[in-house]
Amino acid sequence: MIGFxxxxxxxxxxxxxxxxxxxxxxxxxxAPVNAMRTTFAFIDILDAIDDAHPRIEAATARVDAAxxxxxxxxxxxxxxxxxxWDRPIxxxxxxxRLGYVQxxxxxxxxxxxxxxxxxxxxxxxxxxxxxxxxxxxxxxREAYIATVGLALAQHRLDILGDARQRLFVAKQIVARRxxxxxxxxxxxxxxxxxxxxxxxxxxxx
Length: 205
Known about the structure:
Strand order of the largest sheet: 1-2-3
Radius of gyration: 38 Å
Helix content: 55-70%
């Protein structure tokens, strides 16, 4: 059985989680034992989402790619360099016997297009960054809902544990009264029924 304690310290939400009990639900015939609890804050959940959640990592990679595309969009195209070798059949003073080589370099010069592409790339990067923020808000919302559910479950477990402790004490008192003949057996049977009801509620929860 796993329980979580929900409190509100100054620094924010705090959860207290006892270790897992691999055995069956504890019967009211045995005194409850308090388990050692491990605490962690809600901010730890948020750190785990930011550091290791695959959807956040994928969104972050898309943001980085969009930023890089925005930079590339503002650059000129690569220059074109070509080489050509010509060798005529005959040769003259202007046409050497071994031919000649022509080298050519060409660069397209764009005036307004790179600036417009860079501006559009930045808008696209901002939209991608906004998508990442929306994904994070959704994950935080899901984590908060789950945390509240755990807190309610822990509150229920605390109530059942308190009732089980009180019932255990009452059963010891009634058992001694029944042994002494001061109370009928039906009182002990009623406590056994209440103990079974608590165990059933614990299992169903």
